[in-house]
Amino acid sequence: MLKIRLKRFGQKREASYRIVVMNSTSRRDGRPIEELGFYNPRTKETRLDVPGLVTRLKQGAQPTETVKRLLEKANVYEQLKAS
Description:
By secondary structure, the chain is of the alpha+beta class. 30% of the residues lie in helices and 40% in strands. The chain has helices at residues 50-58, 65-73, 76-82, and strands at 2-11, 14-23, 34-40, 45-48, 62-63. The chain has a five-stranded mixed β-sheet. Strand 3 (34-40) and strand 4 form a beta hairpin. The chain starts with a strand and ends with a helix.
């Protein structure tokens, strides 16, 4: 099963995350299938590849709870319903 989840990178206590598509059995920091965005919790900066996310959601990829909240804030689900 494909998951849309966060991949941690950055220094200690200065974590940033990439939003990636991975197999559900892969390690957290393993090799992703595709990178679809970026999230920095310290500055609340979020950059998303919305067309790529919509495509993966249509293919059946399941987002984690944290990613789901980020996608809801960016109105990705409304674009999914519109297409």
